[in-house]
Amino acid sequence: MTLSTLLRVPDSGLGALAGTSAQSVAIERVVSPGGVEAWLVQDHQIPVVAVEFAFDGGAEQDPDGKDGLSAFVADLLDEGAGAYDSTEFQRRLADHAINLGFLAQTDTFSGGFKTLVETEDEAFELLRLALTAPRFDDEAVQRIRQGVVSSLRREQADPHWLARRVFFREAFADHPYGRSIRGSIGSVAHLNDGDCRDLVARQFTRDRLRVAVTGAITPTRLAVALDRMFGGLPATSAMTPVAEVTSVAGGQTVQVSRTGAQTVLVLGQQGIKRSDPDWFAATIMNYVLGGGSLGSRLMTEVREKRGLSYGVHSYLQPFDHGALIVAGGATANDKAGETLAVMRAEWARMAEGGISAEELADAKTYLTGSFPLQFSSTDAIARLVLQIRRDNLGIDYLRRRDALIEAVSLADVARVARRLLDPRTLITVIVGQPKDITPTRIVEAEE
Amino acid sequence: MPAGIFFPETFTLANGLEVVVATNRRMPVVTHMVWYKVGAADEPRFKSGIAHFLEHLMFKGTEAVPPGDFSRIIARNGGQENAFTTYDYTAYYQNVAVDRLPLVMQLEADRMAGLRLTDALVDPERDVVLEERHQRTDNLPAGRLTEALYAALFVHHPYGIPVIGWEQEIRGLMRADAEDFYRTWYAPNNAVLVISGDVDAAQVRPLAETWFGAIPARPVPPRCRPQDPPMAVQHRVVLRDPRVRQASLRQLWQAPSYRHGDSGQAFALQVLAEILGGGATGRLYRSLVVEQRVATSAGFGYAPSALDYAVIGASLSPAPDSDPDQAEAALTREIERVVADGVTDDEVDAAKRRLIRESIFARDSLRGPAFSLGTALAIGRTVADVESWPARIAAVGRDQVNAAARAILGQPGRVTGVLLPETTASRAAAEEPVALRGSEVVP
Lengths: 447, 443
Prior knowledge:
The complex is a heterodimer of chains A (about 450) and B (about 450). Chain A has about 450 residues and is α+β, with helices and mostly antiparallel strands. Chain A is built from 17 helices and 12 strands. Chain A has helices at about 5, 20, 70-75, 85-95, 120-130, 140-155, 160-170, 185-190, 195-205, 220-230, 280-290, 295-305, 335-355, 355-370, 380-390, 395-405, 410-420, and strands spanning about 30, 35-40, 50-55, 100-105, 110-115, 210-215, 255, 260-270, 310-320, 325-330, 425-430, 440. Chain A has a 6-stranded mixed β-sheet. Chain A has a 6-stranded mixed β-sheet with strand order 9-10-8-11-7-12, sandwiched between helices. In chain A, α3 packs across α9 (about 195-205). The longest helix of chain A has 18 residues, at about 140-155. In chain B, the strands form 2 sheets. In chain B, strands 1-2-6-3-5-4 form a 6-stranded mixed β-sheet, sandwiched between helices. In chain B, strands 7-11-8-10-9 form a 5-stranded mixed β-sheet, with helices on both faces. Chain B contains 16 helices and 11 strands. Chain B is about 40% helix and about 20% strand. Mean pLDDT of chain B is about 95; it is low at about 425-443. Chain B has 2 domains: about 10-210, CATH 3.30.830.10; about 235-370 and about 380-420, Cytochrome Bc1 Complex, Chain A, domain 1, CATH 3.30.830.10. Chain B is globular.
């Protein structure tokens, strides 16, 4: 066999072109009699229903001194509601095989469940109770607090976690985005049931709510279920305003000294918001830089050519009120200087030269061709649709996405690379005992 | 009760390649996997890590596909790919649009027989593997403890050697070692092709014959592994590390697997594990975390998919600022209680109902069916074995659960692993849920 025969794909008669498959997914808008809107993707092949929802306002809304409150509430919502104490609530979830969960993120408080159709009524009811009548019994509050403290302590043994934490603290300084979503051992110690009730009353309102549903459910049935799950929530609430934030552009190199087999590196700077017109140009730029798997520039230079690391990656991290572009990896302590130099050089090369026509073409075929792979399960599709709603991309986004990617030009990528990437102002965080790196500051890990 | 899980089709090529197809028409995409029936437990002595090192080197090119092109071609075609090595098998996969299936079959068939290595490709990749080891094991206290636990639990069987290999042996792995291992084990008659997604067997068969059918079968040696003597002692493995702030504890026993020992117990042990460790309703969480407040997490796990021994065991995190010995004593009491008094009919019924309901979710995935079916066939089980799982679980009775609990958790031999902050005076302590099958290692 030769390479040319390998690349000449015979006509197999299999399926449609990849780019068309996501476009054929039909999203329906369902509005309940009570006015709750959901976007629905029906799929009746498997008797499963997934509901995903998000309220605007997540950990960023945690009051001063109460860092970690949103995450604390997320842990407690399935620990007893209505007439059911924690034991009974958990027993009902388990007996019906309902996978219900809640998650506090920076800008959202989200949740959802996946259930068999035969147990969906129970799932609707348990979610309703969790959102409208959570108990926050003292037993559960104390137990979950212990669990959070325990997990915060456990994370401190992970140098990658530590590096990310210090990086965010450096990048966002005093802005809420610089705080830990899970809070600190000190802040969590003071959270109580009253704080939890305040959060529920303040933040779980219909004006902030977006819902996506996938699976074996009709619009008619969903409409009834929507009112049951969310109809009892208050209509409106006032968000605490969150300031727009630009990442600190200090060019500092911050070291956390730590014994161990490796040095962990995290570097980054101001990124790009999802609403920015250059989002896809930046996505392509990042794919070529370090977002693709084995073939990215960072992987090629750091891993494939030099064997310096198991993996280095970069990613775009958009928020509602700010954005970052971040890269990271781990290397031997005595190779840390070389690895950092190679990563910075790639940062500079991209900033100055953008990408080649071949890289652009490859990025486009990857980003369009791989998109249908994200539609892998009922709940994955629901989360994808929810994200489309949160990002205000429109109900026709799946049909438009490929064209948006195809429209990106070499000049677009070069422009966005120049705008975003500047090795002189990178924030660099190093955890380990690196050789050949002189930090501008050495900090202690937070307890 | 469902009559099956994935409802796959199977056939075998003339060269011995087994093919499994699990159709899922949700989207025009497929997961394409090739599983080789060889893993870290089949390595020659003093060559630990060669199975995993070869897995990395499988991306380094053939006569037809120059180094670096394999992954570039997959990506350019919108595909996602990876590979992983365990004790019992090595698997390679691509997720792609269904119209790209012939391409990935062609690429995977090409490297089944046509790998071409040079020292210039092998040497930097050894450094990559060493950094992988440092990142996943050496630089994480919990990773180092896991390695030590398995070394204690298996005194002679190679499950006691880490999949990624011991560092001093990885450093000595050469191109010839990888080539020997490749020539010995990588053959169509020692592999399973699994495809899940928007295709059926009638569509796959001609493609499989075209691309894989041309590779000749070769003699493959039997998988001979030393077996362990009965374990009569209780090991205690303690790791103190200045970076650890939260203690943790794990307790492991050897157990029968689907393929080893009293394999009929594998189903009763899954019900037992659900009763003891089924999330927030499991006995251990209820007792240790909710009622006694001596731990912040407590779980129990059992993974029966192994060619030789399975591992069964508990894990817990002692409550902050409490004596880890208290949590360990509470765990011991719960284990002793289930061995002595057994479980109730209600517990068995509830656990079986949950397990069977959750099996329906297994179909709700692109990759999941291919992973489950490949795992089974790579350790010598059949599709019928996989499909009869709900029926086998449904048939488990309380007496079988109690007998399995006595036989396995009542064994004198076990290993207790404790992770402690350097300063704690106490004996015991805890970590993540049990990762029972040891490490899965990806390139």
